[in-house]
TrEMBL record:
Sample GO molecular function, one term: transaminase activity
Alphabetical list of CDD domains matching this protein: BCAT_beta_family (cd01557)
Organism of provenance: Aspergillus cavernicola
UniProt keyword annotations, A-Z: Amino-acid biosynthesis, Aminotransferase, Branched-chain amino acid biosynthesis, Pyridoxal phosphate, Transferase
Protein's name according to its UniProt entry: Branched-chain-amino-acid aminotransferase
Pfam family of the protein (one): Aminotran_4
Cofactor: pyridoxal 5'-phosphate
Family to which this protein belongs: Belongs to the class-IV pyridoxal-phosphate-dependent aminotransferase family.
Superkingdom assignment: Eukaryota
Length: 400
C-alpha cells in the first residue's frame, strides 16, 4: 500500500478544470494587518486528488475555500504531510516569473516519498502554478507595480479515511498564494545598530534533525517540534535559532534557512564561503542555497570590486570553529538564505554566554548584498536577466 499502482494516472496540468470565483477578495495594502497575517490568500487555489487505485485525478483551479477532510485523515494522525515554499515575481518587464520551479517540484516529490505519500511528475507543479497565476496574477501583482511577489505554498497531505497505521491510500495536493510582507520587516533593528539577524545557538538537548532522519525533506514534522525553541529565542530578543547537532555542535541551519559564513581559513589564509554539506541529510537542500553556491562558484572565485576572491566549501564545521575564527578576527560576514528571508546578513550569534558579534553599526555584509542583487535581477527580469535560464515565465494572464 502507498505506492502508485502500475496503471495509475500521472499528474497532468494540461487538463485543468477551472471554476472562477464570483466573489473576489480585496487585495490587502502593503503593511496591512491582512498582509502581516501571512494567511490572507488570493482569490483562487489549486486542488488535485490522488487515490492508490486510480492515481491522480483532474486538477482544479477553484475559488479559495476551506478543505474538507475526515477526522481520521492520515495527515492529522501520522504527519503524512509535506510542502514547498516558493514565490511568483512581477518583473520590471511586466512579466510574471517563477524562480527555478523544477527544483521545488522535485524536492516536493522527494519529500512526498519520505512521508509515504505519492510522488508525481515534478515538472507539472510549475504548470499548475501557472494556471493559478494566469487567473490571479493581474489582480494580485499588477503590471504597474513591478518588484512585488506572492508567496506560494504547494502542499501534499494524506487525506483518506483510514485510521490504521499504514501509508495513505488517498492524498490531496493543493496550492495557495499569499501576499507576503517584505522580509526585512521581520528584523528588529534598533537605530544606530547594524541591520541583520540575531541568532541563538540551540542547546545540546534540543535537536532539529539527525542522520537517517528527514531533515532533508520539507515536512511539517520538521517544523512543529522546533517552534517551542523558536518561541523561546524570540522571547529573548532573537530572530531565529541556529540549530547545532552532535557532541561537537555542528552548525546546520538557522531557523528554516540555510546558513553561510565567510571567513579566512586558519591554515591556508584563503577566504572561504562555507556552508554545511548535504551528504548527512541534516539540512534542507535549499533552492536559494544551491543558487548561492552556483553563483559564487561562477562569479566569486575572483576579485569583484572591493570583495576578495572566495573558495566555495561545503563541509562540516562547528560553532566552536565559528567562535575561534571570530576571536582571531578571521570572520568576514555571515548570512542566511531561503525563500522567506531571501538573503539576510547575520549580525550576532549567542553561543552560551558568548555573543559573537559579526556586524557592527555602519558595517555592511558585502558578499550577501552582491549575491542578493544578482538573484533579484534574475527573479525580477532586470539588468539584462529577462531571459535567464533559472526563470520560468508565466504567459497568457487573464484580464478577468
Amino acid at each position: 500500500m502507498g505506492s502508485i499502482a502500475p496503471t495509475a494516472v500521472e499528474l497532468d496540468a494540461s487538463v485543468v478544470k477551472v471554476t472562477r470565483s464570483t466573489n473576489l477578495r480585496n487585495v490587502p495594502l502593503p503593511g496591512s494587518l491582512d498582509e502581516l497575517s501571512h494567511s490572507y490568500c488570493s482569490d483562487h487555489m489549486v486542488t488535485v486528488r490522488w487515490t492508490f487505485t486510480n492515481g491522480w485525478e483532474t486538477p482544479e483551479v477553484k475559488p479559495f475555500q476551506n478543505l474538507s477532510i475526515p477526522p481520521t485523515a492520515s495527515c492529522l494522525h501520522y504527519a503524512t504531510e509535506c510542502f514547498e515554499g516558493m514565490k511568483v515575481y512581477r518583473g520590471y518587464d511586466g512579466k510574471l516569473r517563477l524562480f527555478r520551479p523544477d527544483l521545488n517540484g522535485q524536492r516536493l516529490s522527494n519529500s512526498a516519498i519520505r512521508a509515504s505519500l505519492p510522488s508525481f511528475r515534478f515538472g507539472e507543479l510549475k504548470r499548475l502554478i501557472a494556471k493559478l497565476m494566469q487567473i490571479d496574477g493581474l489582480r494580485w501583482l499588477p503590471k504597474d507595480q513591478p518588484g512585488k511577489f506572492l508567496y506560494l505554498r504547494p502542499t501534499l497531505i494524506g487525506s483518506g479515511t483510514q485510521l490504521g497505521v499504514q501509508a495513505p491510500n488517498e492524498a490531496t495536493l493543493f496550492i495557495i498564494a499569499v501576499p507576503w510582507p517584505d522580509p526585512s520587516s521581520k528584523l528588529k533593528n534598533i537605530p544606530g545598530e547594524a541591520s541583520g539577524l540575531k541568532l541563538l545557538a540551540s542547546e545540546p538537548d534540543t535537536i532539529r534533525a539527525w542522520p537517517g532522519g528527514f531533515g532533508y525533506a520539507k515536512l511539517g514534522a520538521n517544523y512543529g517540534p522546533s517552534l517551542a525553541a523558536h518561541g523561546k529565542a524570540q522571547a529573548q530578543g532573537f530572530d531565529q535559532v541556529l540549530w547545532l547537532f552532535g557532541d561537537d555542535r555542528q552548525v546546520t541551519e538557522a531557523g528554516a534557512s540555510n546558513f553561510f559564513i565567510v571567513w579566512e581559513n586558519a591554515q591556508t589564509g584563503k577566504r572561504e564561503l562555507v556552508t554545511a554539506p548535504l551528504e548527512n541529510q541534516l539540512i534542507l537542500p535549499g533552492v536559494t542555497r544551491r543558487s548561492v553556491l552556483e553563483l559564487a562558484r561562477t562569479h566569486l572565485t575572483q576579485v569583484v570590486g572591493d570583495l576578495g576572491a572566495l573558495e566555495v566549501v561545503e563541509k562540516t564545521f562547528t560553532i566552536g570553529d565559528v567562535e575561534a575564527a571570530w576571536k582571531e578576527g578571521r570572520v568576514i560576514e555571515a548570512f542566511v538564505c531561503g525563500t522567506a528571508f531571501f538573503i539576510t546578513p547575520v549580525k550576532l550569534i549567542r553561543n552560551g554566554d558568548v555573543d559573537i558579534e559579526l556586524l557592527k553599526a555602519g558595517q555592511r555584509a558585502g558578499y550577501a548584498a552582491l549575491i542578493k542583487s544578482w538573484l533579484e535581477a534574475i527573479m525580477y527580469g532586470k539588468d539584462g536577466q529577462e531571459a535567464h535560464e533559472w526563470s520560468y515565465l508565466i504567459e497568457n494572464e487573464s484580464e478577468k
